[in-house]
Batch of 2 targets.
Target 1
Amino acid sequence: MSTDKRARAWVDVSPSSLRTNLQTIRESVGPGVRLLPMVKANAYGLGVREAVSALAPLDPWGFGVAAVEEGMELREVGVDKPILVCSPLPIGSYPAAVAAGLTPSVSDLDGLVALREACRESGSKTCFHLEIDTGMGRAGLDWRRVDEWGPKVEDLVDDGMTWEGCFTHFHSADQVGEGALDDQWRRLKETVDRLPAKPPASFVHACNSPGSLRRPDVAADMVRPGIFLYGGVAGAGLPAPSPVASLRARIVLLKEAPPGSTVGYGSTYTASGPERWATAAIGYGDGLPRLLSNRGEGVVRGRRVPIIGRVSMDVTVLDVTGVPDTELGDVVTFFGRSDGEEISLEEVADHAQTINYEVLTGLTRRLPRIWTDDVGY
Ligand SMILES: *Cc1c(COP(=O)(O)O)cnc(C)c1O
């Protein structure tokens, strides 16, 4: 029986790089701004429990999730800081959110009514944040109609409910010179100013990773960084994060391929001369994008080699003719660092016609996430 988590394919994750990246955000926005690291979607696919404990020494104000279940999981592992559920909640989820002591974000009056009911029925208190839609369109109360909903919100807030914050989400903070961010910021400020009686403790927040790095002037009272923490470039012209995750697989077969040999479904690649092929134990069933077929690369012994043929569910073949000392059992790195060479998440995302976020969150549960700074092989 194999007990080696690095036997087949895995993700190495660096806790110290995760901390470095949050520290970079903190330095960008200044010490007075609360930090709400986003740990939704299993910390962008890398492992939420480990992410939360890795970040603990930096003592963030709280954590951001997208689902009540994600917040409940954090409570189960003993997180006692505020947990903000940043997406609109299914209307039936408010009781569970209140029971777990989560902080829902409220996007409409129906949600506020449901939250009030959940508090009344359980006799519990709750905090909530109001999301303001300033142009993202997917969540929040419309900034243009604050005079309609503002007084109603005031009326609906019971004694047991603490209206703790107001926030919006930028749609284009990753773009350079994007005037939309200023428009959205102005809309948020105007909305907050027009509220009938601002709750005294309420604070304002708007920035994701690119906002926190590009526009610390609108960091306001709190920032909500995600992708940058996990090693993703947050937008054009922004500082590179410290790489956090590396996707690796073991070479499980080496073969000499005579000219004319074909590889993979559809035989989309043919050896032009005598070649040496390596089968790596990873495929799209692990989250290696199938669009890397005949396009992506891996790093073997510090050198880049091409993926040949189609990525299958479980295995992927690389042409290692250029790395003659390749041996059975060698490690292939598909993104991340290896022996002084690096393939960025963004390069993989480009090949896969997607974004770094989707590459990370697409890693499947088949891959062990190995959280260590001591990658000793
Ligand atoms: C996911 C999310 C973030 C983090 O965004 P990044 O681009 O990953 O930094 C911040 N705020 C909200 C509301 C989100 O949903």
Target 2
Amino acid sequence: MSNTFDLERLTAEAEAALAPAFREIDLQAERATARVMDAFRACRVSAALFAATDGYGYDDRGREVLDEIYARVFGAEAAFVRSAILSGTHALTIGLFGLLRPGDTLLSLTGKPYDTLDEVIGISGEAGVGSLKDFGVKYSEVALTAEGLPDYEGVRAALLADPSVKVAFIQRSKGYLDRKSLSVDEIGELCKIVHACSDAFVMVDNCYGEFVEDKEPSMVGADLSVGSLIKNPGGGMAECGGYLVGTRRAVELCGYRFTAPGVGLEIGASLGQNKNMFKGLFYAPHTVAQALKTAHFAAYLFEKLGFETEPRAKEVRHDIIQQVKCGAPELLVAFCRGIQYGSPVDAFVTCEPWDMPGYGDPVIMAAGTFTQGASLELSADGPIRPPYIAYFQGGLTYESGKIGVLSAVREVLKVMENDAQGAS
Ligand SMILES: *Cc1c(COP(=O)(O)O)cnc(C)c1O
């Protein structure tokens, strides 16, 4: 087997074949960087904005300017970005509770939302803990088509049938589902339908999608887009945080939910976190480009090894996630082990599957990251169940991402060679 796969040759072949895709990614990062820098200039970013505030944080100019910059970069009317938003799920929860009231319906337009939202919505979990369901918010969903695309007709019919829909929810990235990620154009199509046949807010779970395309959901009609700063827009710099961008009204309502009605976004000490968030946004288009190249590279190599991938190596991407269908538990474990060995932090650790609370099957995770759980950094995981898919993303630099991918390839090859020997 090792004779068949000359990794050095294969790497050179991959990079030659992917050169046009890499060129496109560089150009796209350049355009997004220009968008970020234009916003910095227009908002007169200066070092004074990086100063820490404490207590109530009234008049924290850095916080106010960063909000304005996010609004501009995402093409929205308003935004808020806070290190006190503790995760993507927290940010999404603020959005959902900010917009929905008792008697309203939350309609998901893209099938089941991300796992961690189940208990927020009340699809699963204990009654009485304060889910949307506990507060009398109903939930329904329109499944994706068999091809994993939005069911536009189904969405239209569901909206027309139920005038209580207040939030039409879209998940841009596949998350950990075996589906396609949506393009911003597809999101725009859904926004058009929602706005034509209801007065619901369109809310987008934007996790993993930021800066992958020239457009963002707020530019095509989304009323609210939400994401995490330890993914794309934090650029690998933000230590923690989340953002919500959208229309003035949607952002105002979410601000009331985030702090308190009447108080809204007037308070919030930045405690010295502003600089990392500014710097992270500055880096984000570039860092996302590094992650995209790493994903293309991984797809190319694993396809050559005979694995099924989604997206395919040469496909245009809509988020930074790469799926590799490992097909056997040992191969999935080997993949993650290799990613861990090829990480800058905790490279000496051998990761093992474990029973993670809330998951039916054991899960394996590789995360040798500077910031805990930061998945713009090289990371991989997958539930130990057929078809044993490794979900892989990140790489703060293409160079290190490539080292991580090659390490995963070597670990997987070892298992394949052992199997081949066992069989012969
Ligand atoms: C990561 C992610 C979330 C939530 O993220 P946490 O920060 O882990 O709470 C939500 N939706 C999608 C699609 C994600 O990828």
